[in-house]
Design brief:
471 residues, alpha/beta, Aldehyde Dehydrogenase, Chain A, domain 1, Aldehyde Dehydrogenase, Chain A, domain 2, 2 domains, 7-stranded mixed β-sheet, 15 helices, binds NADP nicotinamide-adenine-dinucleotide phosphate
Length: 471
């Protein structure tokens, strides 16, 4: 595919191969953008922002609604692209497409709701004869940088609200999975989005990222990706609005009264979907000592039942990791944990990019498999004595994206909801659950700002305050 800059589809002599992570075959190639392409894209985006400011909310709604229709109509083909470039199993890829369309429909609705607020200035001491109200305006040019693991869904969480809010968006999708993002640009243009308002640069973030995020023409950066790249972007960006959706090592607590069937069903999905390459994957489990052995026995069975293989095949529940180096990293961390005294109860072995669904018991907090972000199909279990120890362990991390507890006891559940340090808290389900309309984002090193179209539109607009001084 080509990239979209300067309001047209552009090629380059140097191209990057996009590989199928399952068998390494070349799926397609994309141009390798350079710093000069950033300048061209941003100059166009500045014009695009002006054009967008001239569109009414209803016009933005119509564009987005039409784009969502097109994604829905082409669901099968979008899902195939996700599976080919990202290795996601078919069923999960279809869900990603349905959710992507839903995000664009939600964004379309938000385009009609960019309202303002009357501020009751006479509530301030001694103020009379004044009338105050706010006006919300687009940020202008938004740089949107997305990761490999949800190549369609997370692009839509940025492009949808960005256009709904009346901005021009410059998208930089992940180099491993750029095709879904480019296809979003295709449907947006087909739906009537002004071509100056949506640029998409393909190329290495390490090579072109600094030029994009440091440029003063960019007013807002919305980034989803790893903690370290997020921190680098914040340092490089200077005075800009930023939304950072970063990583995690999400914990789950299992109390003695938990419904064990529900626990094992939930965790088999929330720990291993997309081979654990989900920012809210369950990574650490703190199981009460009273049910520790029973839980391990039941969960080991579930984990061993997860079938792996070619993600295009019906019946395969878990596909490959994105790169062999990542699968090798997870294998090393598992081995390190075993060397340090953890017990391997399922998986542990690797074949190329396919890492077996892995379960470790007796994991210690200082092991990398516990304290770093695994981003792979490995879950570690640690025994705890009571709710206080469980919450303390769950919170003993720099991350804070998603956390969960299984219990029927309202006091424990509420204590957890109040004391858990995470942006998303689940009672009686695992950490990996999201409806796209909800406010979604992390605390601590998991980032700042919220996504979900309503909240992302707030982040992608600015507020002006108007005061009328009446006679
Ligand atoms: P990543 O390596 O941080 O890359 C994310 C994006 O940043 C890619 O487009 C990458 O481009 C780009 N990038 C790399 N260096 C850059 C730089 N110096 N300046 C600007 N952009 C740069 O993350 P990933 O491996 O794709 O995704 C996995 C991570 O994303 C995990 O940590 C996961 O937890 C996190 N994540 C978080 C959420 C959330 O909602 N909180 C959701 C999904 C994923 P290249 O591909 O060209 O390197």
């Amino acid at each position: 595919m080509k990239m979209h800059i300067g309001s047209s589809w552009v090629d380059k002599d140097e191209r990057i191969e996009v590989h199928n992570p399952y068998d390494g075959s070349v799926v397609d190639t994309v141009p390798r953008a350079e710093a000069s392409d950033i300048d061209h894209a941003l100059a166009t985006a500045v014009r695009g922002a002006e054009i967008m400011r001239g569109l009414t909310g209803y016009e933005r709604y119509k564009i987005l609604h039409k784009a969502a229709d097109l994604i829905s109509e082409r669901a099968e083909s979008f899902a195939e692209t996700i599976t080919l470039e990202g290795g996601k199993v078919k069923a999960e890829a279809m869900i990603e497409v349905e959710r992507a369309a839903e995000i664009i429909y939600l964004s379309a609705e938000e385009a009609k709701r960019l309202g303002s607020e009357v501020i009751p200035l006479d509530g301030a001491p001694g103020v009379t004869g004044k009338f105050g109200f706010t006006i919300r305006v687009p940020c202008g040019v938004v740089a949107a940088i997305s990761p490999f693991n949800f190549p369609l869904h997370l692009v839509c969480h940025k492009v949808g609200p960005g256009i709904a809010a009346g901005n021009a968006v410059v998208l930089k999708p992940a180099t491993d999975t750029p095709l879904s993002g480019l296809r979003v640009v295709e449907v947006m243009l087909e739906a009537g989005c002004p071509p100056e308002a949506l640029q998409c640069l393909t190329g290495s973030g390490a090579e072109i990222g600094d030029a994009l995020v440091s440029d003063p023409r960019v007013r807002k950066i919305t980034f989803t990706g790893s903690r370290d790249v997020g921190e680098h972007i914040c340092r490089t960006a200077g005075l800009k609005k930023v939304t950072m959706e970063l990583g995690s090592n999400s914990p789950v607590i299992i109390m003695p009264d938990a419904d064990m069937n529900k626990v094992t069903t939930a965790l088999a999905s929330t720990g291993y979907a997309h081979a654990g390459q989900v920012c809210i994957s369950t990574q650490r489990v703190y199981a009460n000592r009273e049910i520790y052995s029973d839980f391990l026995d039941a969960f080991t069975e579930s984990v061993k039942g997860i079938t792996t293989g070619d993600p295009r095949q019906e019946g395969v529940r878990m596909g490959p990791m994105i790169r062999e180096s990542d699968a090798a990293r997870v294998e090393t961390w598992v081995q390190e944990a075993v060397d340090g005294g953890a017990r391997l109860v399922a998986g542990g072995q690797r074949n190329g990019t396919l890492m077996a669904p892995t379960l470790l018991a007796d994991v210690k907090p200082e092991m990398r498999i516990s304290c770093d972000e695994v981003f792979g199909p490995a879950v570690g279990v640690t025994p705890v004595d009571d709710i206080d120890e469980a919450i303390a362990q769950a919170n003993s991390t720099n991350y804070g994206l998603s956390t969960a507890i299984f219990t029927e006891n309202l006091d424990w559940a509420m204590k957890f909801a109040l004391e858990a340090e995470a942006g998303n808290i689940h009672l009686n389900w695992g950490t990996q659950w999201r409806a796209d309309l909800m406010p979604y984002g992390g605390l601590k090193d998991s980032g700042m700002g919220k996504e979900g179209p309503k909240y992302a539109v707030e982040e992608m607009t600015e507020t002006k305050m108007v005061v009328v001084h009446m006679p």
